[in-house]
């Protein structure tokens, strides 16, 4: 039996570390939204404390099945009021630390799922 890797056109997160991720080898040092349909959108937030409902309203406009919220170096859940736009559109939201969100995004995107990763990249301490 000959095995061949699946080919996907989705952007791939190729690395991550404190305050950065790499998408298809390009290093990004600010919060970012990566979508399996090729989206790469600067997410205008630099700390968890600065998050607002408007940041999650932007995610609801992506028209994906599920959003993976990478909440930084540790798991921090969004407030219920923030995610109302996602609930209204029946978009799933999974919260995890940013490293786990990167790994999970790659798996789902390579499976051909309609997914986005909203990655909070806080400046290293």
Tell me what you see in this structure.
By secondary structure, the chain is α/β, with parallel strands linked by helices. The protein has a single domain, classed as MTH938-like (Hypothetical Protein Mth938, Chain: A, 3-Layer(aba) Sandwich), CATH 3.40.1230. It contains 3 helices and 8 strands; from the N terminus they run E-E-E-E-E-H-E-H-E-H-E. It has helices at residues 53-60, 84-88, 98-110, and strands at 13-17, 20-23, 26-28, 32-35, 40-42, 66-70, 92-96, 115-119. It has a 5-stranded mixed sheet, with helices on one face. A 3-stranded antiparallel sheet has the order 1-2-3, covered by helices on one side. Strand 4 (32-35) and strand 5 (40-42) form a beta hairpin. The protein is globular, with a radius of gyration of 14 Å.
């Amino acid at each position: 039996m000959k095995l061949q890797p699946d080919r996907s056109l989705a952007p791939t997160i190729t690395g991550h570390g404190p305050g950065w991720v790499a998408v298809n080898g390009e290093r990004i040092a600010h919060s970012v939204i990566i979508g399996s349909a090729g989206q790469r959108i600067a997410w205008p937030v630099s700390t968890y404390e600065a998050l607002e409902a408007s940041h999650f309203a932007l995610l609801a406009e992506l028209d994906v099945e599920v959003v993976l919220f990478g909440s930084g170096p540790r798991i921090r859940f969004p407030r219920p009021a923030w995610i109302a736009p996602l609930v209204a559109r029946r978009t799933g939201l999974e919260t995890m630390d940013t490293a786990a969100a990167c790994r999970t995004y790659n798996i789902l995107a390579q499976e051909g799922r309609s997914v986005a990763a909203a990655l909070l990249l806080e400046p290293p301490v």
